[in-house]
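Work package 3, deliverable 3.1, input record:
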Amino acid sequence: MELLTGLLHGFQVALAPASLMMCVLGVVLGTVIGVLPGLGPSATIAMLLPLTFKLEPTGAMIMLAGIYYGAKYGGSTTSILLNVPGESSSVVTCIDGYQLARKGRAGPALGMAAIASFIAGTFGVVALMLVAPPLAKVSLAFSSPEYFALMVMGLAMVVLLAGDSLVKALLAMLVGLWLSGIGTDLFTATSRFTFDTVELLGGIDFIIVAIGVFAIGEVLGNIEPHEAPSMIPVPKGLRNLMPTWDDMKRCRFAFANGSIVGFLIGLLPGAGATIASFISYGLEKAVSRHPEEFGKGAIEGVAAPEGSNNAETGGALVPLLTLGIPGSGTTAILLAALTLWGFKPGPLFIQDSPNLFWGLVASMYIGNVLLLVLNLPLVAVFAQLLRVPSYAMFPLILGVSIVGVYSNASSMFQLGLLAGFGLLGYLMRKLAFPTAPLVLGLVLGDPMERALRQSLMMSQGSLAILARPIPLTLLIIAALLLAVPLFRRLNAVRMQVLDNET
Amino acid sequence: MPTIRKWCVAALAAAGMMLSGAAPAADWKPTKPVDVIVHTGPGGGSDLLARAVVTILEQEKLVPVRMNVLNKPGGNGAVAAAAIYERKDDPHTLGFITSVWLANALTTKEAKITIFDLKPIAQLLLEPAVFAVRADSPYKTLKDFIEAAKAHPGQLKQSGGSITSRDNIVREQLQHATGTKWAFVSFPGGGARLAALLGGHVDIMVIEPQEAGEQVRAGKLRVLAQLSDKRLPKWADVPTLKEAGYDIQTTPQIRGVVAPPQMPTEAAVYWEGRFAALVKTAAWKKYVADNELEESFLPGKQFRKSMDDTSKELHDEFVKAGVKVVR
């Protein structure tokens, strides 16, 4: 009952014209910065923060949150169309989204990204509302050993991201892990593999690597002389641009997977939307009846990660609002904003500021609907982009990539890195190395190393700390993930042998 | 706001006399947007402080141009220091520094440009901190914790940042003074450190008072001691380290403003005056009170001395703690 009155009250707050305006403003702005690679929600919110001091805090919070989850809707657009991830949480979407676009199915892929985002985003809000306080306690049970096991599970997924050769995938992953080690070590303040350059002290930003190996590598691969320049067909009419009923049926599990995995990982302050999207993608492929289609344009490969990164929003707001613990740069700014407006995010926040909490929750329901309505018609507009001939398209992709990376850190060194990783991506394509494991290794390497070292510091060097229930379960899942394809392969060999004998 | 203008004039005049010595300061004013360089990404401590300062400077009309915060993350300040240095004599560039830059200058050999190559403008703040444990923890006082650490050497745990952070230095000092040992577990962000404490994975942490306040009010944390010389206004019933029985000189956590090395004197005088005016505004006082910070304004010259002193203290502590010092 308390919940209903709270929510009703929240809708009263959120449906007030001023709040509604702020919500529209936030989600539109969020979509735009999501589409633009480089410019992310954290930088945008930070820039807008001074302006919000003149606004009424609830409206301001509704707008800033709108930017936060709106950006996750927009992030998939360039992933699908250009193979350039718009946001770090849309890196995985490149894998199948871009392949779909190359098959002329950019429309359904974009539409599915919006629908999955809507379903999972809404699920995230419902979950935030229903279970925030009790689940906040659960998230505290997660500490370094648990994170370590989670990251190991993530790395085990490399067998799922691998192409024909598991060895090549593992090699790519190891390179990714090595790259993640570059920079200043948190524990000892010593620098590793920096070659006496100041620029490498902070490590290598994985989004540069992702844009380099995915987008630049793709462009370099495509400008080689082909027999016939490939033109991507774009069907006409809005109806043909939308996902079919069959697509929706195929994605049933992806919706549930994205919603639940995204929300649960969002709860953990040490994981985040990027890791959530990778894990949802891996899970989707692991349980799929046709895993061979992944990487070649499976629409579930778009629905699962895009859903997941949106459900993560609801999850990430749980520790932020109920414990005062931010899990990412963006939530740290939201926390600072709340403090500056005079609110006190922490265990008593919901009790102290029901207006803001319920207004925010209600506005997120509205915002998700707005985003769906906003994004579906845009599909038709964006899909036309693929009619652009390749002599204009490739410079466009290069331009978007370079501007994206430069606007992030305004440093020429980073552009050099982008070029280097573009070349690496090209070579990997030529030598048939999968690029996704490299990016996965880079994303997971640093948090994994950190979590292991923290665990061992906690246990005075004893590995027994990893035998706690949650880490143990996750490690067993990881082992199964690694073992199942091996068994399948052995089985296939055995079958072949049997066939030959008869 | 006539009073503020009066303050500005007075502060400007005072600052002018202090910095320029014999030569009277020429009138200089910024004529184009100013870049404010910070070493953290959006949402980091320096970033948030810089944005708050810029907002107040603009709202109070203390500066006639726009000021843009420019994030130059990486290398614990090394990248930002190099970026400020590259601006040579640009009077339209400022940077926000913290004690992290001092520590970094001592421990990172790649950092060829350090804070000491830049022009100090003004020290703004000291950041207080407190020792906190979970509310259901058996340790009611810092002494309880130290006794427990004595009884179980190496088994108690403290969450914190890097080993060059203030959290670890005060731990080293306490261990040294009491002959105890407990573990220090590094986490990259304040959120993760707090989560580790609340979740029962570590026993104690050094936390900013404003952050601790909400948790104490909700009955989740208990504060054992504060790392400052005198008691903070909102924590009048919590002893300082000295009052708790541990006579330790903690290294202060400084926040201040620097400029490119060859910034013309008249521009440096102008900026020093602006910050002197800033710290007198009501908006600033409210910001400092809300965030439970400690006001500590020092003009350029004294700021330089404050940095030198802190750097020396850090150097000694690093050597004692076995941190590799390169300068």
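Residues 12-25 of chain B have pLDDT under 50 and may be disordered.
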